TrEMBL record:
GO terms for cellular component: extracellular space. Its main location: secreted. GO terms for biological process: plasminogen activation; regulation of cell adhesion mediated by integrin. This is trypsin. One of its GO terms (molecular function) is serine-type endopeptidase activity. It comes from Triplophysa rosa (Cave loach). Keywords: Disulfide bond, EGF-like domain, Hydrolase, Kringle, Plasminogen activation, Protease, Secreted, Serine protease, Signal, Zymogen. The chain holds residues 150 to 399 of 406 of the full protein. It catalyses: Preferential cleavage: Arg-|-Xaa, Lys-|-Xaa. It comes from the Eukaryota.
Length: 250
């Protein structure tokens, strides 16, 4: 996250960190005790058969050190959206699911630092101009290469679909499965290493996961908003692959 501020995981308790071996891969969001939603582009094609390489941490304030309150899991299933094409520069359907399980065969336990985010109802998008928040452990400086030592968050404003498709990007780059958001004065943005992580919006005191951090041209550059996977297009896909009852999905 470029700009924004340092966050504690207690204020982003749905935040997941995905690792391959000891290496950090991507952010993610806990949407049910056994399920983390993330971005498809975090996984090269064919990774569904190599889930033993991956692990997931919840309740973690830094990437570099383990946390006394953290919960660690292995991955028992990886579902990458079948419409995502890793070989092209196209990020359509940048969505994936991880099923998590710990050494005792259990899923996530609710604590002060671990909690699920809600999924919004199908096709119900927040209006442009609305402010939401993003979180991640990725790069923290415009043009920088270093990942943040701590979890960070930032407030971003949702940009109208037509502005995003005509003013900032084009319709080939940004389609109806994506939306755009940017910080005040273009100063706050997601950056490399944040992908897969959450864009949540507060509605009636409840945090709903509307976006998955996906891509963008550079980070925190004027007129280059961040682009997010539009979670409200995927309720049925999530229900089908998790088996979660539809009423818990928005
Ligand atoms: C990335 O490479 C990435 N500024 C994610 C988000 C943004 C740029 C790059 C948005 O994962």
């Amino acid at each position: 996250i470029v700009g924004g501020l340092r966050s504690s995981v207690e204020s982003q308790p749905w935040m997941a960190a995905i690792f391959m071996g000891n290496g950090f891969v991507c952010g993610g969001t806990l949407i049910a005790p056994c399920w983390v939603l993330t971005a498809a582009h975090c996984f090269p094609s064919g990774e569904e058969t190599k889930i033993w390489k991956y692990s997931v941490s919840l309740g973690r304030n830094t990437i570099s050190e383990t946390d006394s309150k953290e919960q660690k899991f292995s991955v028992s299933k990886l579902v990458v959206h079948q419409g995502f094409d890793y070989r092209t520069e196209n990020y359509t359907h940048d969505i994936a699911l991880l099923k998590i399980v710990n050494g005792d065969g259990k899923c996530a336990m609710k604590t002060n630092s671990v909690r699920t985010a809600c999924l919004p109802p199908f096709q119900q998008m927040v209006p442009s101009g609305f402010y939401c928040e993003i979180a991640g452990y990725g790069r923290y400086q415009r043009g920088g290469f270093e990942y943040s030592r701590h979890l960070k968050m930032a407030r971003v404003e949702l940009i109208s679909q037509s502005d995003c498709q005509h003013k900032y990007y084009n319709e080939d780059e940004v389609n109806r499965y994506m939306f755009c958001a940017a910080g005040r004065n273009w100063e706050d943005d997601a950056c490399q290493g944040d992908s897969g992580g959450p864009l949540v919006c507060e509605i009636n005191n409840t945090m709903f996961l509307f976006g998955i951090i996906s891509w963008g041209k550079e980070c925190a550059e004027q007129s280059n908003p961040g682009v997010y996977t539009k979670v409200t297009k995927y309720n049925q896909w999530i229900a089908k692959h998790t088996g979660l009852p539809a009423y818990t999905i928005g």
